[in-house]
Write a structure and sequence with these properties.
GO terms for molecular function: kinase activity. It is a multi-pass membrane protein. The chain is α+β, with helices and mostly antiparallel strands and 398 residues long. It folds into 4 domains: 77 residues; 49 residues, no CATH class; 73 residues, Helix Hairpins (Orthogonal Bundle), CATH 1.10.287; 146 residues, Heat Shock Protein 90, CATH 3.30.565.10. It is built from 9 helices and 11 strands. It has a 5-stranded mixed beta sheet. It has a 4-stranded antiparallel beta sheet with strand order 1-4-3-2. Strands 5-7 form a two-stranded antiparallel sheet. A hairpin with a 5-residue loop joins strand 3 and strand 4. The two termini are 46 Å apart. About 5% of the residues have low confidence.
């Protein structure tokens, strides 16, 4: 930052010097225009200055001017035509009149230098902050572009700029973030392809060995394989959410159709659980504005969470108000403990015996809520007695 600070210091000093020089020119112009001495001899030679004596009562002076004349002072009187006459009291009480004297007009330099002063001030401001604001605007546009489509960026800001160190740090940061994202995608791809294949072989081998192994070992191995597959699915969902933000598109959908399609995916659980639906979107004309893929993923996570903890009943509601939509999934299970707020973070799990999974479900829901400018609220349902998780997001303002 030292070269940038030195250039800024030199620029400020040069700008201040320019302002002082402009003020000096204006002061000199005023002095030339209005501060001059009368050359009486030159005026006499030119015949433009005349002397004549007049009686004391010929001109009616005020009492104040009479006192100045009596004290020997020289006074002047101006006329509308721009001529000035000077008066002095003689020893015999008469007055001596000198004139006429025509005042010189003011210099035209003043009119020209005042705009120069304002121009110098404007130039100073432009030199001080103009380039900085231009570079900051460029950096801002690059940051917004990175938010919309992550990629390694070059800001194009020159090394002589005052914010070049900041721009250089931004370029380094974007490169590191893209490296991490690529590493994350590669890891997700590896988990998806390289782990599921051996798991499938293990499950196939386990089925072939079913008659040769005791039931307790078969059950233990089957549970371990299921746990690894569950971890793999959770991680893939987590990776999908982490990288999907810049691809989301908000659309207007029919609320009834969205909820019907959502419930159809859980119809296989109808014999074990009682599903109830509350739908009221009349305030928004029966429609909702969402990103279909991400909101469906959030709703599925909420319902899957309810299936894990519910005893028998699960209630799903979608309500529209004047400013928000609210999707709530409630169950008659044990509910959450005091860690409700912490469960919205990644890899946080409940402490109850029924708690399972890997702490990613509610984190995914919270991320999707943030994308929709919404919030997630966890509380105990007053009717069913279990947990009630609500995802609320804003309606567009027209």
């Amino acid at each position: 930052m030292k070269p940038q600070l030195l250039r800024l210091f030199v620029l400020i000093i040069a700008s201040c010097a320019l302002i002082v020089w402009s003020f000096n020119l204006i002061y000199s112009a005023f002095d030339d225009a209005y501060g001059y001495n009368l050359d009486a001899e030159a005026l006499l030679r030119q015949g433009s200055l005349e002397f004549r004596d007049i009686p004391a009562g010929h001109i009616a002076f005020s009492a104040e001017l009479m006192e100045k004349l009596a004290a020997g002072q020289l006074i002047s009187l101006g006329r509308e035509n721009g001529e000035s006459y000077y008066y002095q009291q003689l020893e015999n009480g008469d007055l001596r009149e000198m004139g006429p004297v025509v005042s010189r007009p003011g210099s035209d330099k003043i009119t020209a230098l005042i705009p120069l002063l304002y121009a110098s001030l404007a130039l100073t401001i432009l030199l001080l902050i103009g380039r900085v604001f231009k570079d900051l605007s460029l950096l801002q546009s690059k940051a917004l572009s990175f938010g919309d489509s992550p990629q390694k960026l070059k800001t194009g800001i020159r090394p002589r700029s005052a914010i070049y160190p900041l721009a250089l740090s931004f370029e380094t940061m974007t490169a590191q973030i893209m490296d991490f994202l690529q590493l994350h995608k590669d890891l997700s791809r590896t988990i998806s392809h390289e782990i599921r294949t051996p798991l499938s072989r293990m499950r196939f081998a386990l089925e072939l060995s079913r008659e040769q192994l005791p039931e307790q070992y078969l059950s233990r191995l089957s549970q371990d394989i299921d746990q690894i597959e569950e971890l793999t699915r959770s991680y893939l969902s987590f990776a999908q959410v982490e990288h999907q933000q810049h691809k989301q598109t908000r659309q207007w959908l029919d609320a009834d159709a969205f909820m019907a399609d959502l419930l159809s995916k859980f119809s296989i659980y109808a014999d074990r659980f009682q599903f109830s639906l509350q739908l009221d979107c009349q305030a928004s004309g029966g429609k909702i504005q969402i990103d279909p893929l991400s909101m469906e993923l959030a709703a599925q996570n909420l319902i899957a969470n309810a299936l894990r903890y519910a005893g028998k009943q699960i209630r799903i509601s979608l309500l529209a108000t004047e400013r928000h939509w609210t999707l709530t999934v409630a169950d008659d299970g044990p509910g959450f403990d005091d860690k409700g707020s912490e469960l919205r973070r990644a890899f946080e799990r409940g402490q109850k015996e029924q708690s399972s999974g890997y702490g990613l479900g509610l984190y995914i829901v919270r991320k999707i809520a943030i994308w929709h400018q919404g919030t997630v609220k966890i509380k105990r349902d007053s009717d069913l007695g279990g947990a009630a998780i609500s995802l609320r997001w804003r309606r567009p303002v027209f």
